[in-house]
Every structure is written in structure tokens, then in C-alpha cells.
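Protocol step 4 of 6: structure prediction from sequence.
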Amino acid sequence: MGWGYLAKMGVFPESLWSFPVKADIHPKYQDVVFQDVTSDFIILTRSTLSSKETIKWEDGKEYPLVKVEVSSASHPFYTGKQKLMDTSGRVDKFRKRYGAAKPATE
């Protein structure tokens, strides 16, 4: 008989399922609102992150607000849309700073 079988039968001691943790060394696990600033997507979840900013949620309570730049609402993998980044001028700026490439000599 294995441990899994005993647990399914309900004969596994309950005290072995809960593991005590040391006090005052773990970060506070709390409700937090994450906001994607590029798509205005917000979600209430639990996290160890905290913030000085707060937001009033639909339930009337205030929660810490953590702003993120990328989430599933804005990431191209999840949305299927590729965002075009403004890259004009980067190559010119590089060439201006470091000079034009010299032709390779044979």
C-alpha cells in the first residue's frame, strides 16, 4: 500500500498534510490588483508584491495597485497581434555615434 492509497481512503494522518512554517520570515501574502498600463486590463489576485498606490475595487475595498507593462491582455503571444515598435532613428543614431561601417578588405 502506498501513501496515495492511504490518503484517498482517509486513513492518512491529517497532521502530516499541514507543514508548520517559521514565523516572521515569510513575505506577506495578500490580495493585490495588477493593472496593465498598455491595455487598461486589471485583475485582482493574490501576491507577495505590495505597493504604496491603492485602488478601490468593485467590492468597495481598497487594495495595493501594482502596474505592469505586459500582461496576457497585451502580450503578442496571447493576443495574436504583433505591436510595431517605433524604431526609426535607432540605426541612424547608432551610425552617428559610432560612425559608418568601413568596407571589409580582402
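Step 5 (inspection) to follow. The mean pLDDT is 76.
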